[in-house]
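So, can you check these tokens?
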Amino acid sequence: MRKVVCGVLAFLAISAVAQVDKAEVTENPQTVCWEDSVKIYLERGRWNDKEVLVKLAECYHKGNGVPQSSLGTIFMYMQVQEKGGMPIQEYLRNYAADDPVRLLSDAMTDLDRRHFDAAQVKSEKLKAINDVNYLAIQSVLAEKRDKDEQRSEELLQEGIQKGSEFALLYAVMAAEVERDMTAYEEYLKALSPKMPMAYNMLGRYYWNKGQVENSEELTLKAIICFRKADERACLTESSARRWINYYDKNPDKLTENLGDSATIKRLRSIFKLK
């Protein structure tokens, strides 16, 4: 029996970190080149600039320079909170009640608190604006409220096929609970490009498996995942520790693709690691 994973908002305590020279970015939507702005935001976000992470959240919200992503918006605000910024709800309350990000966030909270009727209302509103994340909400409701696992699985797979990030996230967490590690890996591989903070989880999976199997290939796959998370300002401290640990033991093996000495120096400074 598939166990539903609640507390989705607690998924991944994300860290990106430290301090860099602040380049000015013109934000007039009529003139700004968002792809260039996002590059600057990501570089500053990798150095723990909370203000920039808020800007990145808005980029995910509006699809400016990055694919539009409600979950990307939510998790970027979570990073700000983790780094000492305002609580995520303080940011989300500025969104209209019928904004897809607000609807998804509130529905996730409703599901976590077992407020199924409220989640149902928000799911219907998401469906009305053609937001496919409603299918994931319906999948959780089918399992938790209706006790219909077959229908829940059907809705979940439909959501994944139609591009629901919440459906993929839910599938990842369910696979982990069920210890179906083949599905866990495949779902994470699908989710990570859409929601880069998931690269930390995929990297951790490869790292742990590589340690058990004494596999250099898996360990290097883990390092690549950590690098991808870092590039998107989503690297966690635990991922950084593993990356630095590998570098300390194998300083000659790191390359531009895996992270050079300058990258490791930055990570040590950011996370205050020796």
